[in-house]
Design brief:
Strand content: 5-15%
Shape: elongated
Strand order of the largest sheet: 3-4-1-5
Order of helices and strands: EEHHHHHHHHHEHEEEEEHHEHHEEH
Structural class: alpha/beta
Distance between the termini: 13 Å
Mean pLDDT: 87
Number of helices: 15
Length: 377
């Protein structure tokens, strides 16, 4: 599974790296509402939630449908401003129908990748949105009803909510992290200019890479291999083009200091693709490829291989020793060992005439984290 952005024919200058105050506020609000996703932010989440005034905390709970389980598209601007006020000004320019439709792009439904009518004018879409919100809770259902019945009033309320967040805690955050995010964006922009997009994507995230027709086949005349694409290694499938918004073609990358382990991808129909990526930090482990995580889980799913791992976790053993211990043939052991080795779960070394196998404890210990990061990415 992967998400793909077709960038065939896109000028390099239309790939933009820039920080966004609104996107960073959205990432911070998500961390506050889902601290389990962000164990490294536990201290900040606890302190910030404790300091929130009751009224602000209640309003954040009411609106958290926009950022809790997934991030609403309105929180990921394609053309960010330098301040939160500028981002909110641009948000105010979006018409009600488009704003409301984008506000509720918060579900894993495949509808996201297809054009859908605005819930303000379509009864079926309105009923779907209300049902989805009701499953989130009564406050979220009430918030949704207000958005659908009085979008102008709700938009004023929402802007005030974001402004109150800036006054309460986000202003201090942005003064601290905005400089770091701007520096990262400048670095990626310079890297793009000097080294090209492939190397820039690699430096942005190991879950991003460029598929170029020349790299794939050396012959771009083959129509199936003729597109240049940005690929996102995520447990989801989505496809869009850098020309989704004909008035503003391109791709926007937004750095975030609150986002890890998420790699957020907004690609609704008719909207410029936006990716929010976590800024690299020395303490953050490099993400494992989702295909490798799946391969390791499948390798461990066999009962006999789990028993072999129990023995191999205690020390190195030869194939003959394992065959005798478990009452199976040496070829059977070899087949199981080959599967575990292909998944990178065991280490093999030769000692004299014996080949010894041992479980790689560090890889296995990270498997849970790799899986969790993969499903949250």
């Amino acid at each position: 599974m992967a998400n793909v952005i077709d960038i065939t024919g896109l000028p390099p200058e239309r790939v933009v790296f820039t920080p966004s105050p609104l996107a960073e506020l959205g990432a911070a609000l998500h961390a506050l509402s889902e601290p389990g996703h962000h164990p490294g932010l536990h201290g900040w989440v606890t302190a910030t939630n404790a300091a929130l005034k009751t009224d602000l905390a209640d309003r954040l709970c009411e609106a958290d449908i926009l950022w809790r389980s997934s991030r609403s598209d309105i929180l990921l601007p394609a053309r960010p401003g330098a301040t939160l006020a500028e981002d909110l000004d641009e948000l105010d320019k979006i018409g009600d129908e488009r704003f409301v439709a984008a506000a509720f792009e918060i579900t894993c439904s495949p509808r996201y990748t297809r054009p859908t009518p605005s819930p303000l004018v379509d009864a079926g879409e309105r009923a779907r949105i209300r049902e989805m919100a009701a499953a989130r809770g009564p406050r979220q259902a009430a918030f949704t009803d207000r958005m659908l019945t009085d979008p102008d009033g709700l938009r004023v309320w929402l802007r005030r909510l974001f402004e109150d967040c800036e006054e309460a805690f986000f202003g201090d955050i942005w003064r601290r992290v905005g400089i770091q995010l701007a520096a990262d964006a400048r670095h990626k922009t310079e890297l793009l200019r000097r080294k090209g997009l492939a190397e820039t994507l690699s430096a942005t995230s190991r879950a991003l890479w460029l598929e170029d027709p020349q790299d794939r086949s050396g012959n771009s005349s083959n129509s199936s291999n003729s597109s240049t694409r940005i690929v996102l290694d995520k447990l989801a499938q989505g496809r869009t083009t850098a020309f989704a918004d004909p008035a503003d073609p391109g791709v926007t990358f937004l750095p975030t200091s609150f986002g890890w382990p998420h790699l957020v991808f907004a690609h609704a129909q008719g909207w410029r693709p936006v990716l929010q990526y976590p800024v690299a930090s020395p303490e953050l482990p490099a993400p494992a490829a989702l295909e490798l995580v799946q391969q390791r889980l499948e390798a461990l799913g066999h009962p006999m291989r789990m028993q072999l791992c129990r023995t191999l976790s205690r020390g190195p053993h030869s194939t003959g020793e394992l065959a005798e211990a478990f009452g199976i043939t040496s070829p059977e052991v070899s087949r199981h060992i080959a599967t575990l080795k292909k998944a990178g779960l065991i280490q093999t070394r030769r000692r004299g005439r014996y080949v010894l196998h041992q479980l790689d404890l560090q890889v296995v210990a990270r498997l849970g984290s790799d899986f969790l990061e993969g499903v949250l990415r």
